[in-house]
UniProtKB/TrEMBL annotation:
Record family assignment: Belongs to the sulfur carrier protein TusA family.
A family per Pfam: TusA
Span of domain UPF0033: 7-31
Signal peptide: none
Name assigned to this protein: UPF0033 domain-containing protein
Length: 75
């Protein structure tokens, strides 16, 4: 998977990971992929719902050493 940008939102509580993700997505072109790193466990549901409601493609997520990683393709 080609990653176009990485957002470090570790240590931020809701709603800041979504706010920062939205800002970064606005700077990407359609079809580009944003990788997001968060530590807020609530971000899983929030980012999934936000991506779908915004017309983006939620590609996948995984957890590694207490860090949740998400990949979203801009719609």
């Amino acid at each position: 998977m080609n990653i176009d940008k990485v957002l470090d939102a570790k240590g931020l509580a809701c709603p800041m990971p979504i706010v920062k993700t939205k800002k970064e997505m606005n700077e990407l072109e359609s079809g580009q992929v944003l990788e997001i790193h968060v530590t807020d466990k609530g971000a899983k549901n929030d980012l999934t719902a936000w991506a779908r409601s915004g017309g983006h493609e939620f590609l996948k997520h995984e957890e590694e050493d207490q860090i949740l990683k998400f990949w979203i393709k801009k719609g």
